[in-house]
Write a structure and sequence with these properties.
Glutaredoxin, five-stranded mixed beta sheet, alpha+beta, globular, about 220 residues, 8 helices, 2 domains
Length: about 220
Amino acid sequence: MANGKTTNWAAIWISAGVVVLLVVVGGLVVWMNNQASAPASSPGSAVVDEETGAIAVGEGENVIDEYVDFMCPICGEYNELYGETVHDLVEEGRVTLNLHPISILDRYSQGTEYSTRSAAAAYCVADANPEAVYPFFQELFDNQPEEGSTGLSDDELSGFASDAGAPDAAECIASDEYHDYVTQITEETPVQPGAQGIGTPTVLLNGEFVSLTGDPQADIVAQLK
């Protein structure tokens, strides 16, 4: 016997549709969060430590870690003052040089993100030819753009990579393949005691911060094991 009430099927179907929509949206949010938290694509080169971003040059007992931003003028000065000494120590087999290209100065390249692009390019070079990494670093510092400029173009970065011995790095550089990886490992840069945040150059010798006085013999050579 009818009780005088009718079922509002339209309301039921609308409610069911809303529930399905909420489930879909919730799933999408979870997927996006997982994507955002997923590790960035890391270089496959045998000379790159995926966890720290260090690109190893040499096999010496002592370990020098250099954290540099290719747009940083003080990094250019450091390379000019210390580069030859450190390179000689690597060649002599006394030092392993861990190069850390990082990005803290994108704001000084007119929106081109030069710091990140150039650091990512260094990992492309490591993938293409590990032996070209150190020459590539030298090329970028020898041709370092000024702060406030647009920095070097991708074509110029590829040209310097080719000059250094890694012509096959061009496609990787053009795609900015390691952009997110650079952003990720930059956050892991150790902070000098007393500093307010990450700075470049940051240099460590056998795990200890080096106070840079401009004298590589006193700051580095005299401190070796």
